[in-house]
Design a protein that fits this description.
The protein is an all-alpha fold and 148 residues long. Helix content is 84%, strand content 0%. It is built from four helices and no strands. α2 packs antiparallel against α3 (88-115).
């Protein structure tokens, strides 16, 4: 097996992991937002508590695991193609990823506050967060595919 085929295989594996990671990450964030939005329509404290715990589990099991996979696989991709670090589109994409990380952290803090008895996140704010997540995901994917 030549060095080129080993690097191509490593790149393909890293790319597949990177794509799977971003799908899990964004899917987990959007699912958590939907669960939190549904929570606010419930009148039972027990049901609201269950929804809050479900949102927490979605963030931990899907979103945060997906984010970790995305970042690790992204670093692996950069190790196989370090010249990409000179590309403007990649700098823009990485900036958008940092913003997505910030949105993830804000949502996680909101869920932790809710678990501790804090005020719920408003439906309007959850809708805004969902829209921001969707737009960030779309922009990240477009930059990665088109590479302007």
């Amino acid at each position: 097996m030549s060095w080129f085929s080993v690097m191509t295989s490593a790149f393909d594996l890293a790319l597949a992991a990177h794509i799977a990671g971003i799908v899990l990450w964004v899917g987990g964030l959007l699912a958590a937002c939907s669960v939190l939005s549904s929570r606010e329509r419930e009148s039972s404290n027990d049901v609201q508590s269950s929804f809050t715990q479900l949102a927490r589990r979605l963030l931990k099991a899907l979103a945060h695991a997906g984010a970790a996979l995305t970042v690790v696989a992204g670093v692996a991709l950069l190790l196989t193609k370090p010249a990409d670090l000179q590309q403007v589109w990649l700098h823009i994409k990485l900036t958008l990823v940092v913003i997505l990380i910030a949105v993830d952290l804000l949502l996680t803090v909101g869920v932790r506050r809710l678990i501790s008895g804090g005020t719920p996140i408003s439906a309007a704010r959850l809708n805004l967060v969902r829209g921001v997540i969707a737009l960030l995901f779309l922009a990240i994917v477009l930059l990665a595919v088109i590479k302007p």
